[in-house]
């Protein structure tokens, strides 16, 4: 599909998705509550035309930036009967991330995940249960639990790259897709799947992922082939995981993986998790982490390999790590890799995998802006926080279009100066990403291995963002030539 059509389609799609999934609230709006503050500016007339023109010529980010420069950090886009209020930057996004669930909710925007993860968890269950299941994720993925995963990830990474030749050319995106699935197999699912039926799991999981497309998002229960394949894969995966859970319980076998932590999790009333819940949660975790990490690792590569200054600094840091710790890598050593950390973080700022986050107002809320305005947003409004522009506002980030990992280092820390919600690629607040530390850990282990063992060059042009995708990835292949070149450990 032509890029321009994709871009226009994507933005119209976001608005119409909001219309379809929120149709239950059609009758609400201002009639249900008295809006006492003025509403945000609505994009109309010449601004709307210029917005659509920018959309056709460039991409959604540039089109939204045009509106931000014109109208400020909050404005409303209207499409048919639906209104979506756009929020950009720290100040305007406070109620989005920190409002009460009874005021600002995730609504049913994630309904499409129900057939993917099953009916016993996530968005299929009531809010109180979902919150408890989120707690299981956070507990299982906290730093103290992650330490033991470093060696497992490292083992996967070393085995994977040992299969590369002495020199050659690869598509980094494809390589990371495979490798991150192997890591998920090892750390999240555990040895039963990783060592025996990984191929089958990989194929079934791909069928579930295929269910992430615009049509399935809008009509998740329509019996079309892609949805049917997704449903069959979900049932088969649930039965595989359930059998593993049963077998571990039968033999009193306890493993050190995420699956085990979910098996051992308990609700507040003491109830243990069921096989169906564990199965849905583990599929959900793999889904949440695999593609997003692949994308961020790929952008990190594209950025590093086109910025010799930062590539040099990251290589130098690895040399220092090796002279200090030889080949050892543990959680603390990873934490010392600050330059690599900021290179990954900066790639995420410039190219967020999830550039837009959605919520719905369940009551009238008030939003204050950096510009000093205060607006009332009626009940039933769709809110869209733009991660992609929050990471680009010039009052927070100096020269935001420039790849400059140093902006996060001590002395500058632009994301902190700008406020807690200035860096939202992992979300924030109640629904913040549970896997942020895990994501950094795996991407750092991968890139520290690559920098220590290969001389790499980007051979394809610097990728554009693929706005036709649901999770925004580098468009096309990210081709890299490699030559083995072991860094000396002294
Ligand atoms: C670079 C990689 C990643 C990015 C960019 C990312 C991004 C995000 C974002 C933006 C959200 C919030 C969504 C919202 O507010 O609506 C989120 C939530 C979540 N992420 Fe990640 N993520 C990444 C990796 C991971 C990994 C590796 C895991 C698990 C292994 C994970 C697990 C989760 C979970 C469980 C949630 C839901 C939290 C909740 O609502 O309770 N993520 N992620």
UniProtKB/TrEMBL annotation:
Annotated family: Belongs to the cytochrome P450 family.
Taxonomic source organism: Avena strigosa (black oat)
MF-aspect GO terms: heme binding; iron ion binding; methyltransferase activity; sterol 14-demethylase activity
Protein name: Obtusifoliol 14-alpha demethylase
EC number(s) reported in the record: 1.14.14.154
Protein keywords: Heme, Iron, Lipid biosynthesis, Lipid metabolism, Membrane, Metal-binding, Methyltransferase, Monooxygenase, Oxidoreductase, Signal, Steroid biosynthesis, Steroid metabolism, Sterol biosynthesis, Sterol metabolism, Transferase
InterPro entries cross-referenced by the UniProt entry: CYP450_sterol_14alpha_dmase, Cyt_P450, Cyt_P450_CS, Cyt_P450_E_grp-IV, Cyt_P450_sf
GO biological process: methylation; sterol biosynthetic process
Listed cofactors: heme
Signal peptide interval: 1-18
